[in-house]
Amino acid sequence: MSLESVRAFFSKNAPDIEIIEMKTSTATVTQAAEAHGVEPGRIAKTLSLRVGERSFLVVTRGDARLDNRKVKAAFGGKASMLDAEQVHSLTGHPVGGVCPFGLATPLPVYCDISLKAFDEVVPAAGSIHTAVRIGPERMAALVGADWVDVCQEASAKSEPAG
């Protein structure tokens, strides 16, 4: 069970961090922001990507969009999103609950510098009803993430949602 792997991760690595369980779904950035009473940018969304045969996770602020040019420069090729089945198989987490904690398969994790705008972010915790509150630097340290710059600049985010 995905939530259980996240619980085990925090029990071992950061027992002071409490998993927040919600009755409503927090599967989307909008739902999570409303449920946790924060702006969408504070939701740390975890994207499951592949470049060639290499799969990895990128954690970004909730209102950020990937910049394909920056992604290609950072990871050496065009990235594609994994499908829901691949995501669940590799991470052990369902789409909407994916996080860099308690992964089923060891995967490289990257955190986008956009997260550094916040002192605290709210990533999912292995299910569509759970999350944690954590500083972005601490999150990156706990999961051994490298910092990258792969999102569009704030002023470039003029595309409509959906």
What is the fold named in CATH at topology level?
YbaK protein
- Largest beta-sheet characterization: 6 strands, mixed
The CATH architecture assignment turns out to be Alpha-Beta Complex
Low-confidence stretches: 156-162
Q: Give the N-to-C terminal Cα separation.
A: 30 Å
- Please give the domain count: 1
Q: H/E order of the elements?
A: HEHEEHEHEEEHE
Sum this structure up briefly.
InterPro entries: YbaK/aa-tRNA-synt-asso_dom_sf (IPR036754), YbaK/aa-tRNA-synth-assoc-dom (IPR007214). The chain is an alpha/beta fold and 162 residues long.
Describe the structure.
The chain has helices at residues 2-13, 29-36, 68-75, 84-91, 136-143; strands at 20-21, 43-51, 54-61, 80-81, 109-112, 122-123, 130-131, 146-148. The longest helix has 12 residues, at 2-13. The protein is globular. 38% of the residues are buried. The chain has one domain: YbaK protein. It has 162 residues and is of the alpha/beta class. It comes from Microvirga guangxiensis. Residues 25-139 form the YbaK/aminoacyl-tRNA synthetase-associated domain. It holds the Pfam family tRNA_edit.
Write the layout of secondary structure elements.
Blueprint lengths: L1 H12 L6 E2 L7 H8 L6 E9 L2 E8 L6 H8 L4 E2 L2 H8 L17 E4 L9 E2 L6 E2 L4 H8 L2 E3 L14
List keywords for this structure.
162 residues, alpha/beta, YbaK protein, 6-stranded mixed β-sheet, two-stranded antiparallel ribbon, 5 helices, 8 strands, 27% helix, globular, disordered C terminus, YbaK/aa-tRNA-synth-assoc-dom
